[in-house]
Amino acid sequence: MDSADLFAALARKALDREPLTRDEALAVLRAPDSDVLELVAAGSRVRRRFFGNRVKVNYLVNLKSGLCPEDCGYCSQRLGSTADILRYTWLKPEAAVAAAEAGIARGAKRVCLVGSGRGPSDADVGRVADTIARLKGRHPDVEVCACFGLLTGDQAAGIRAAGADAYNHNLNTADARYADICSTHTYTDRVDTIEHAKSAGLSACSGLIVGMGESDDEVVDVLFALRDLDVDSVPVNFLIPIKGTPLDERWSLTPQRCLKVLALARLAHPDVEVRVAGGREIHLRSLQPLALHLANSLFLGDYLTSEGQDGDLDLKMIADLGFVVEGTDESTLPRERPDLVRSRKRGAGTDLPANA
Questions:
Q1: DSSP readout, 138-189?
Q2: For residue range 17-42, what is the model confidence (pLDDT) as tens digits?
Q3: How many domains would you assign to the chain?
Q4: Of the candidates 276, 261, 253, 278, which has an alpha carbon nearest to the alpha carbon of residue 323?
Q5: Residue 350 domain-assigned?
Q6: Using CA atoms, how far apart are residues 210 and 216, in angstroms rounded to an integer?
Q7: pTM tops 0.85
Q8: Is residue 220 part of a domain?
């Protein structure tokens, strides 16, 4: 079977919500680079079936930056990091809501409130509960996704009671590889947090980071583990090697590799939100628009401690592709000149918090 026939067969399985086998998943990752456009076309059929021409826009607000005791090797906020980033403790609720409204004004349907650290204390849960309640009070139709690290069942219930809709806690990589990336908590700790969030009634958001030296089998492992966990959204991040972190020399990704991983995420999770996330601008480069034929979701503008693509360019890219921002009348979105100077976050840290 040639590549075009294989990809078409896998798309048909995904359209019928039939799970891919390991061999089929590996065939996607090992496809020749010259066949990537055919792979994107097959994945696009699935994306269009379940999500039409809609793109869900998400916006990150970094409530607490740096100061983390965990040693995740990819992260600028990790213990021992010398990356040049801002470090601060919890934003006050009014400041957090004001930051969120910058994204909401541009069509963000989901605001992701993130705080670095191993996990929140009970006092921290109370603090972020006030922020969540204020944000939901002013914007009841906007989804709030919290991301504060490892959770107990009671903490998950408290975050849900405050009005949060979802909880993000990425698996990041395969179980077999996890100890090579982090020594201060385990893969099982992450799985447990996802289960606590689901039990509390929070929508589970969990994804991966590629480019950390993982094998094809390990990419399949983590994507299949997320399938088994039945998560509702899968962010796909591409490692940004940050000076001052252990992975600062690992530049191994190509645009074709990124598209293969995104295609596999779509085929393995046909009716689940797949989000193209951190590192897309750097690693997909001129092929970045092709990602939205596979992913139905993205982060708008900057990330946590690193710069993303200009938010106006993100919106323009969505429109140029013939897509529309989910839940928003596109004509109401602000249009600013992309050449205007915009406020930027200091430093060039990773796009992910230590607990992401």
A1: H-TTSEEEEE-SS--HHHHHHHHHTT--EEE---BS-GGGHHHH-SSS-HHH
A2: 999 999 999 999 999 999 999 999 99
A3: 1
A4: 276
A5: no
A6: 10
A7: yes
A8: yes
